[in-house]
Design a protein that fits this description.
This protein is an alpha/beta fold. It has 18 helices and 22 strands. The chain is about 25% helix and about 15% strand. α8 packs parallel to α9 and α15 packs parallel to α17. It binds 1-deoxynojirimycin. 1-deoxynojirimycin binds next to loops.
Length: about 550
C-alpha cells in the first residue's frame, strides 16, 4: 500500500451476522467469542475487514437495527470485554472490524424514547424533543414509505403522550429529531464510544433520512449533509484512520453528495449497480451495467465505492424503474413469497439456480469492476435461504461449517437454535458446508478464495481508473473493461451468456497473461466459454500501436468484428 492510499481502497470486506456465525457457549445463538474463534477462516478467505450487523442491545423487532442501548453489547452476543478481545485478535491477524451505528432512529424501548413519550417520566423534560412529535399525521406527506409491506404511514400514534411520532422504518423504530442539538451531540458521543472500543470503521445506517422538511421528500436534505460532515470532521480530528461507510440507497447523482468534497463519508455502497449485474446476467446483455456506470460520477480524492452482490437485506429494487422492477421480480422471484417490500429476499446461489459458473462470473465482476467488494457470509460456499422465516431472517441463518448436527454452528439442542439451519436437499448443511468445500480444490469456496487472492495481488482493482468506452464489442454478451493504475493495466472480459463467444485481440501488447490461470493469450482470435471470464494483463505494451482507420484505440482490446 502506498503511503497515501487509505486502507479501505485495497480491502476486501465481508459482512456477517454475529448471531448466525458461531455459538461458543451452546445457547443456540452465535456470539462474539464464537466469531473470534473463526477469524482464521475469515483471514484465510482473503478478507481484510469484517462488517458486523448490529451487536447492540435490541428487542430485535428489526433484527438489531432497533437499538435500545447504543453503548453496549446484546447480552447473548457477549460483553464489551468480548468485543475488545475480538478487536485484539482481529488486529493480530491484520483484520479490521467495522461496526454499525444507526443514527436515524432508536428502538421504542430505548430509554430516550421512554422518557420522551411519558410526561410523568422523571427525565421527560430533557428528552421531550429528542424525537419527531406532532399533533397531526398529515405533515411531510412527500416522504415515501420504505417498508411498504408492513407500514401504511410514517406516523404512529402514542397513547401515553397523545401525539404522533415519525418513523421512516417500522413503527417500533421512532426517528430521532436532528433539529435538536443534543441529539446530534449524543450521536457523536456514540461514534466516539465505538472508536474508543477499538472499531476500525462505522457503517452509518440509513443516512438519507435524518431531517424532515415540509415540501420535500425528506431525503438527502442539505441539513443531513451538514450533520454528516460534522461527524466526519469529528472522526478526522479524533481518529483519522476510522472509516465512515455510508448506506445511502440512492441514485448516483444523489449518492455523490454523501462524499461531499471528500469531507463527508469515505465510502458509500453503489446500490444501483447491484441489481443491474443480475439484470445483465439474465438478459445476457451488458446494457444495464453500461448505462448505470455511464451515470456514475467520479469520486473525490480518498473516496471509494462499496460494491456487493448480496447483503442481509432484500435484493433491493428501489434504484430501478418500475418496469425493470417488475422484470426483475418476474425473473428472479417467481414465487411471490420471495418478494418483500421493493425487493427479493433470496441469497446469491438460489438467485442464479445454484449455477457455479454464474456465481463465479458475478464474483469476477464484483472483484474487478469498481470500488471495494463486500461479500456476504455464507455466499462463498453457496448457502441457501429459508423463505418461511419472518421478514429478511431467511437470509440470516446459521453458518454451515460442517455436516455435523446443527452444521457445526452450535452444540445446543437443535430446537434451541435462534433459527433453523438450512437443511433442504440442495442447500442443506449436510451437502453445503465449509469442511466439505475446503478439501475440494474446485469447490466454490476455493474458487472464490482464488479470485480474491488474485484481486489482492493487483492493487489496480481497488485504486485504478475504469474505462470501457475504448472497447467496441459488437456482441453485448461481453462485459469488457480496462482498469488502469500508474503503469499497470488489466483488461477484464466477462461472458454473460450460456454460449461460447468469439472475439479478437488487437496487437496492443506482445502478449497477455491471464492473471487467474497464468496462461498466455496472444493477440488475435480468442474465445470465452459460456459464463467464462478472463483477467488479462498485457506484457510488452506496444508504444507504437498501428495507425490508420482500423487501428485500435488506446486501451482497446478486442472486437468480435473480424
Ligand atoms: C438498513 C438496514 O440494512 C436494514 O436491515 C434496516 O431494516 C434499515 N436500515 C432500518 O434500520
Amino acid at each position: 500500500m502506498t503511503q497515501n492510499t487509505p486502507w479501505y481502497k485495497d480491502a476486501v470486506f465481508m459482512e456477517l451476522n454475529t448471531r448466525a456465525y458461531k455459538d461458543s457457549n451452546g445457547d443456540g445463538w452465535g456470539d462474539l467469542p464464537g466469531l473470534t474463534s473463526k477469524l482464521d477462516y475469515i483471514k484465510n478467505l482473503g478478507v481484510d475487514a469484517v462488517w458486523l450487523l448490529p451487536i447492540m442491545p435490541s428487542p430485535l423487532r428489526d433484527d438489531g437495527y432497533d437499538v435500545s442501548d447504543f453503548c453496549n453489547i446484546f447480552p447473548a452476543y457477549g460483553s464489551m470485554d468480548d468485543f475488545r478481545t475480538l478487536m485484539a485478535e482481529a488486529h493480530k491477524r491484520d483484520l479490521r472490524i467495522v461496526v454499525e451505528i444507526i443514527p436515524n432512529h432508536t428502538s421504542d424501548q430505548h430509554a430516550w424514547f421512554q422518557a420522551s413519550r411519558d410526561p410523568n417520566h422523571p427525565e421527560h423534560a430533557k428528552y421531550r424533543d429528542w424525537y419527531v412529535w406532532s399533533d397531526t399525521d398529515q405533515k411531510y406527506q412527500g416522504a415515501r414509505i420504505i417498508f411498504t409491506d408492513s407500514e401504511t404511514s410514517n406516523w404512529s400514534f402514542d397513547e401515553l403522550r397523545g401525539q404522533y411520532f415519525w418513523h421512516r422504518f417500522y413503527s417500533t423504530q421512532p426517528d430521532l429529531n436532528y433539529d435538536n442539538e443534543e441529539v446530534q451531540q449524543a450521536m457523536l458521543d456514540i461514534v466516539k464510544f465505538w472508536i474508543d472500543a477499538g472499531a476500525d470503521g462505522l457503517r452509518v445506517d440509513a443516512p438519507p433520512y435524518l431531517f424532515e422538511r415540509e415540501g420535500t421528500n425528506c431525503e438527502n436534505l442539505p441539513e443531513t449533509h451538514l450533520f454528516l460532515k460534522r461527524m466526519r470532521k469529528f472522526v478526522d480530528e479524533y481518529s483519522p484512520e476510522t472509516l465512515l461507510l455510508s448506506e445511502a440507497n440512492q441514485w448516483p447523482e444523489d449518492v455523490i453528495e454523501y462524499f461531499g468534497d471528500g469531507d463527508e463519508m469515505h465510502m458509500n455502497f453503489h446500490f444501483p449497480l447491484m441489481p443491474r449485474l443480475y439484470m445483465a446476467l439474465a438478459m445476457g446483455d451488458r446494457t444495464p451495467i453500461e448505462a448505470i456506470l455511464a451515470r456514475t460520477p467520479d469520486l473525490p480524492e480518498g473516496c471509494q465505492w462499496g460494491t456487493f452482490l448480496r447483503c442481509h437485506d432484500e435484493l433491493t429494487l428501489e434504484m430501478v424503474t418500475p418496469e425493470e422492477r417488475q422484470w426483475m421480480w418476474d425473473t428472479y422471484s417467481p414465487d411471490p413469497k420471495q418478494r418483500i417490500n421493493l425487493g427479493i429476499r433470496r441469497r446469491l446461489a438460489p438467485l442464479v439456480d445454484n449455477d457455479q459458473r454464474k456465481i463465479l462470473l458475478l464474483h469476477s465482476m464484483l472483484l474487478t469492476m469498481v470500488g471495494s467488494p463486500f461479500l456476504y457470509y455464507g455466499d462463498e460456499i453457496g448457502m441457501g435461504d429459508n423463505i418461511e422465516l419472518f421478514d429478511r431472517n431467511g437470509l440470516r441463518t446459521p453458518m454451515q461449517w460442517d455436516e455435523s448436527v446443527n452444521a457445526g454452528f452450535s452444540d445446543a439442542p437443535t430446537e434451541r437454535l435462534f433459527a433453523p439451519v438450512i437443511s433442504d436437499p440442495v442447500y442443506g448443511y449436510q451437502k453445503v458446508n465449509v469442511a466439505a468445500q475446503e478439501t475440494d480444490p474446485h469447490s466454490l469456496l476455493n474458487e472464490v478464495r482464488h479470485l480474491i487472492a488474485v484481486r489482492k495481488q493487483h492493487p489496480v482493482f481497488g485504486r485504478g481508473d475504469f474505462n470501457w468506452r475504448a472497447f467496441s464489442f459488437e456482441t453485448k454478451a461481453v462485459v469488457a473493461y480496462q482498469r488502469k493504475w500508474e503503469d499497470t493495466r488489466i483488461v477484464v472480459l466477462n461472458n454473460l451468456r450460456d454460449l461460447p463467444v468469439k472475439g479478437w485481440i488487437p496487437e496492443t501488447a506482445e502478449k497477455f497473461i491471464d492473471v487467474l490461470t497464468g496462461e498466455t493469450v496472444l493477440p488475435g482470435d480468442f474465445s470465452l466459454p459460456p459464463y467464462g471470464f478472463r483477467w488479462l494483463q498485457p506484457v510488452g505494451d506496444k508504444a507504437n500501436i498501428p495507425s490508420g482507420p482500423n487501428a485500435p484505440q488506446p486501451g482497446y482490446l478486442g472486437s468480435d468484428k473480424q
